[in-house]
Amino acid sequence: MNLQTGAFGDPAQIQTLILFWTKMELLHYPGAGETRAYLEEELHKQQLQQQMAMQMQMAQQQMQQAQMQQQQNGGLDMQTAQAVIKRAQQDAARDSGRPWERMLPSDIDTSYHSGIARPPEAGSGAGLGHPRRRP
């Protein structure tokens, strides 16, 4: 039995090669320590590359999710959309059922409510069917 027949595992895997060269180093095989160290460095490089690829993939997914949320909110980010909704709810609660509070005092004609009709202003032409004339 040897490395090529799979005695230590899949010979195409770096972990298997590291195990093999560790055993060879214990047997004082010439150059085994350097070979094992090289393989461990290569394994470390592969792991870093895999980690970076996963981080990039996660970042892309987060960007896609953010874009989808932005599109669903009509181009607004979530925080802005929530602030707009909260303000609208506050305004609606403040104004609900009390439209007179939004009116200016000059907009309210109390003569109809009190039963007292206001007399037309002198020279206004009110009630005569023609616009006000200036002397």
Structure commentary:
This protein is mainly α and 135 residues long. The protein has helices at residues 14-26, 32-72, 78-95, 111-114. The model has no long low-confidence stretch (mean pLDDT 77).
Task: Tally the beta strands.
Answer: 0
Proportion of strand residues: under 5%
Structural class: mainly alpha
Poorly predicted runs are none
Q: Note the gap between the termini.
A: 125 Å
Cα radius of gyration in angstroms: 42 Å
Order of helices and strands: HHHH
Shape: rod-shaped
* Portion of residues within helices: 55-70%
What is the makeup of the main sheet? Answer: none
Calculate the mean pLDDT score and round it. Answer: 77
Separate helix tally: 4
Provide keyphrases for this structure.
135 residues, rod-shaped, mainly alpha
Structure in a nutshell:
By secondary structure, the chain is mainly α. It contains four helices and no strands.
Give a topology summary.
Blueprint: H1 14-26, H2 32-72, H3 78-95, H4 111-114
